[in-house]
Amino acid sequence: MNSERDSETTFEEDSQPNDEVVPYSDDETEDELEDQGPTVEPEQNRVNREAEENREPFRKDCIWQVKANDRSFHEQPHFMNTKFFCIKESKYATNAIKTYKYNAITFLPMNLFEQFKRAANFYFLILLILQAIPQISTLAWYTTFVPLLLVLGITAIKDLVDDVARHKMDKEVNNRTCEVIKDGRFKVAKWKEVQVGDVIRLKKNDFIPADILLLSSSEPNSLCYVETAELDGETNLKFKMALEITDQYLQRESALAAFDGFIECEEPNNRLDKFTGTLFWRNTSFPLDADKVLLRGCVIRNTDVCHGLVIFAGADTKIMKNSGKTRFKRTKIDYLMNYMVYTIIVVLILLSAGLAIGHAYWEAQVGNYSWYLYDGEDYLPSYRGFLTFWGYIIILNTMVPISLYVSVEVIRLMQSYFINWDLQMYYPEKDTPAKARTTTLNEQLGQIHYIFSDKTGTLTQNVMTFKKCCINGQIYGDHRDPSQHNHNKIEPVDFSWNTLADGKLAFYDHYLIEQIQSGKESEVHQFFFVLAICHTVMVEKHDGQLNYQAASPDEGALVNAARNFGFAFLARTQNTITISEMGTERTYTVLAILDFNSDRKRMSIIVRTPEGNIRLYCKGADTVIYERLHPMNPTKQETQDALDVFASETLRTLCLCYKDIEEKEFTEWNKKFTAASITTTNRDEALDRVYEEIEKDLILLGATAIEDKLQDGVPETISKLAKADIKIWVLTGDKKETAENIGFACELLTEDTTICYGEDINSLLHTRMENQRNRGGVYAKFAPPVHEPFFPSGGNRALIITGSWLNEILLEKKTKRSKILKLKFPRTEEERRMRTQSKRRLEAKKEQRQKNFVDLACECSAVICCRVTPKQKAMVVDLVKRYKKAITLAIGDGANDVNMIKTAHIGVGISGQEGMQAVMSSDFSFAQFRYLQRLLLVHGRWSYIRMCKFLRYFFYKNFAFTLVHFWYSFFNGYSAQTAYEDWFITLYNVLYSSLPVLLMGLLDQDVSDKLSLRFPGLYVVGQRDLLFNYKRFFVSLLHGVLTSMILFFIPLGAFLQTMGQDGEAPSDYQSFAVTVASALIITVNFQIGLDTSYWTFVNAFSIFGSIALYFGIMFDFHSAGIHVLFPSAFQFTGTAANALRQPYLWLTIILTVAVSLLPVIAIRFLSMTIWPSESDKIQKRRKRLKAEEQWKRRENVFRRGVSSRRSAYAFSHQRGYADLISSGRSIRKKRAPLDAIVQDGTAEYRRTVES
């Protein structure tokens, strides 16, 4: 069995998942997988080699062809696809984005078609048709037509408003401008006019309108810096570099207009970090990779001008490919309500069928022999029964009232406005209110089980701040005066003594400034000097001000801190760096930069001082620095204690150290460095080995502590949501250490939390799979499910897993066919059957593995997934939806969150640092993560409670109203005679009983908003579906049945033997109808008074106003005047005036109302006294609870010398910046026609100028 399984596919188990790498999330072809050799090469070397060696096969596979400056090329017949019948369109998408659903022509037909796809609307359309048939119509056609028209109209208007908003948003994006070459010149064009093959010009801070090939830029060697926050959530700058040939020849407008390059590349896909193609130009081919492509959604930074060729446009761009499909979202209550409506329809059909059979029997036994009942038609009793069946279908249709759907839409619309109008969710700094972008999901906000949150820009502000440091074993950064005395309140440090300070740093330790200015401790000066010299930051001067261009926000924060403390980085060339040291400028010769990467977790710089000494300066993570320290480091333990303190405060740290190098030692090392720099294979590994030789016996200076600033109120919000039994998962593209640090900062993780990593749970899942296989495997369908917890009970656990481990664990890792299967031989039927079974086994194994992972993850109090792609974010959300059947909410602020937001039941967009992509795709949006607690715990809970009360009451009042016809049928020969006047039936749900229930659905609240936030445990009623389920539905149904019996039989008993004041018996049909209708209206309106928790003048007015309105309209409709005008429509002339002047009938109405309501009052009293709910208890104590409770941050217990975790290190950029600097490629020089800068080991360069 195992051998058969293994021969089908082989997982690459020999390669361990890499925690630092964002995995590809799209399907790779088998050819791509087979091309991956076992040896590891430098990325650029590998790309170039593969492009050269595999160009011919590649051209066969890559059928996406782009011709520069030639729009007609892309309109050729073989590029056209048939869209509909003979209508054809180009396979190259236009750059216009379309998120709207309708236009002026399609709105009415498409909207009506969508609305009639709803079972209820279609049901009422059928009823309307039945009412138009005279033989079976028992009610006037307008009783259904008017409410149906109202429903369709309100829904259509709401859909129109939503779609107009989408049109505006699309128009705003599509009408952005850029410069495009037309007629040989750059002209301003709208984004929607850009097409594949166009050459465009972009400027600093422009959004990139399409996926483009970088041709040239104003930077040296056509470098271009981009911010990819929209794609991966990272705010650090990344650089792209054009081909040398395009950099040389495509700088001028005329050259760009004449450019006729031809590109063959891969088809549009969603792989953000991968691109393969070839440029053919000037009879030469040039390989293209992802480093030469600028993606839509990124922003040009620190680059004045760049030029590019559009490769993918509009829907074909990678950001749009990652957006996922727009899903039609409906609430859990919607689905439940539909099933209940289907149940009612079944009950309606059964009742109608039973009454029709009764009528057929009655006709056969009584009707045919009663001459006074003859109607002139000689129908058989069975046919009369058939007609009666349809008659009762029409009469009893109000059990499924169409006004229910109107009211639900109105309530949801108004709840959305309440969210929009909530000033406590308004963010004044950016003038951003909360916005409900959909009106159909409000009550689902009260049922959330899992929240999936992005990190960067959602939990954090994308701002790094220098907070503390440890120098020579002494911690600086507390609130201290120059005399080392601590103060709770102290003014921030005044940096005015430093002319180069930017004045933006808030620092409160005056003692550190005293130490710097006094110069007593040389280590303090040395510490900030390391920060100023050991980095890869670039500097520009504008109007005398220094502007730093940092590759990561961490580096920017550290260099800025050094600048404020008197050590300012002023300038750099290819082999020098200039520092202002307390006002004195000194220039150092850079001998080598030992770059950072994710394995080294450190960077170093070797410089020669003006005095001629050689010194190495290094900064890095404490885990790697401590391994390389000299044994004689006196402050090693004190610095470790400081690192533990910083870790407990969730600060990101780096250790700083240095080393003096002898001239002879450097000369010998430099030879090895030169040899490693020019090697052609495994260059990175060779350099790392050489770096190791020099980075040892280091002298520790101290450590820095940076705060990755959280948004305001994040820990408090997470704490309250956790108390509401909502689990929070963080899904981020950032690295593991950073994500873990933020987990501690926002109190998602605590010092007591046991953290499990990918390798830990992989073994657990493997063991579980083996146990399941031994018990019958994943195919034991009929065995009772055995729930075995993965962890022992008790204890607080969290899971931190990277994207690579996620693919490994969920069996999403790319597979390749075993070589055995590549043998070509004829396949027998038996072989095909075995192959099919093998595929099914693999799918079953994958499904079981994924289910086990979800079960394991849900046992953890928190889950953090880092280094995940947009597609993986959506996959994690989908797994929880699929296997836990739980209501999910996804919240994010960037384009990399769009797929996740669309996949979750509810998507929330934060209008923040990363553009508006997430907001445009979301269901709700606001400016700060902290508003989420109010959205869920207040608006969500209230909406859920209101909707549940509304539905329970609506079903009750309609059963009480409709089933009176059923009881009446036993006394009228089952003849489908109505128990009420037609106009009463028409207006009952529209006027007489609609307003009170509507206001309860809009305004009711069991406790105030402050108490809702103070007691998050109240939220669990929605998670457990306690207020609206089948049990509650049948209780409401039973309540309605009993009320209808009381409403019918008490007046019936009163009418049997009675005499009025005038000596006449008021026991006619019309007086009976008025009595029952009056008792019904008073009963149902008083009943909603009992259901109301929050009384206002509006509620009281609506209840008594509805009763008064009923009597006013009834007396008008029963007047002689209206009967004269419309004799056929108003036939109850004088009935109300005649009946309601009888005290006996008033006594009957009062008795009926009392018998209907008193049992309800008694049950409510007993339940609140004996079995009070949590909200009942809080309501009783609400006056004592008025004082608002202040949230307090959890105290960190610090134990000296004991650290339960390592602090995160403050690095977040990829390898490559040192090469740029030392090669001179990023240094701005006067441009020659061709600058070919070549790096060698001694940091020299030569310039070749085209002759």
Automatic annotation (TrEMBL):
Residues 919-1173 form the P-type ATPase C-terminal domain. Residues 75-144 form the P-type ATPase N-terminal domain. Its cofactor is Mg(2+). It is a multi-pass membrane protein. It is found in: Endomembrane system; Membrane. This is Phospholipid-transporting ATPase. Keywords: ATP-binding, Magnesium, Membrane, Metal-binding, Nucleotide-binding, Translocase, Transmembrane, Transmembrane helix. Pfam families: Cation_ATPase, E1-E2_ATPase, PhoLip_ATPase_C, PhoLip_ATPase_N. Belongs to the cation transport ATPase (P-type) (TC 3.A.3) family. Type IV subfamily. Residues 1-53 are annotated as: Disordered.
